[in-house]
Amino acid sequence: MHVNGKVALVTGGAQGIGRAFAQALLGKGAKVALLDRNSEAGQESKAALAEQFEAQRTVFIQCDVTDQEQLKGAFKKVIEHFGRLDIVVNNAGVNNEKDWESTIQINLTSVIRGTYLGLEYMGKGNGGDGGVIINISSLAGLMPAAFQPVYCATKHGVIGFTRSIALAANMENYGVRLNTICPGFVNTPILQSIDKEENMGQYYSYKDEIKNMMQFYGVMDPSIIAEGLITIIEDDTLNGEVMKITASQGIHFQQYSQTPFTSTKR
């Protein structure tokens, strides 16, 4: 897919990786809708991006992704504003082991809902033009994370869901490709959450162990993750892939054994 002229929707788009995604997409000529529950950060990001790119190419929509009606409404607003939708990036995420129900809602449930909404609008079976959906997981979705078990579970779930629905998309000819990005540690506000007891709960006492892991593995700039996003969007051969991005190895892909047998559509 050529990014130029396409319309992208990015959840959690006001800061961190989401904002880096928006900047990279705009740099390639796309139009971008930033969705975020933080109105102040969203307006600031919209203003900053408007200074760098044409103002009419970005829109900010305040949205709590855990609110089903808000998320549905935000998708509808994007279509009404730009007239189409080509790229969905389900990026919104948190690290909160204390309020773990909320972590599941934001990191996994909203990703599933955002994927289905993307398919509803972009799927060729629904009259759409096709498109790309990228769901953001983490290296914690591929390995255990001793002091972040619920975060880890949600990120495993994102990978399993995305790989599975990518198979379905291929079998049913949705015209939509679905892939996952799994970054290592990235310099975003979410890293600051490990210093807060209200986020870490019973695992708060292990914050120094997590910081030692960050120092060992290295912390990346969000722009590196954005490079991976553009790679996935532009490569039409990628579907159901799990892209890993680490400070030591850069952009590479998780290797899996052959997927199990799947029947063709009757």
Question: What can you tell me about this protein's structure?
Answer:
With 266 residues, the chain is of the alpha/beta class. The protein has one domain (7-253): NAD(P)-binding Rossmann-like Domain (Rossmann fold). It is built from 8 helices and 8 strands, in the order βαβαβαβαβαβαααββ. Strands 3-2-1-4-5-6-7-8 form an 8-stranded mixed sheet, sandwiched between helices. β1, α1 (16-27) and β2 form a beta-alpha-beta unit. α1 crosses α8, α3 (68-82) packs parallel to α4 and α4 packs parallel to α5. The longest helix has 24 residues, at 149-172. The protein is globular and about 50 Å long. It starts with 6 loop residues before the first strand and ends in a 13-residue tail after the last strand. The model has no long low-confidence stretch (mean pLDDT 95).
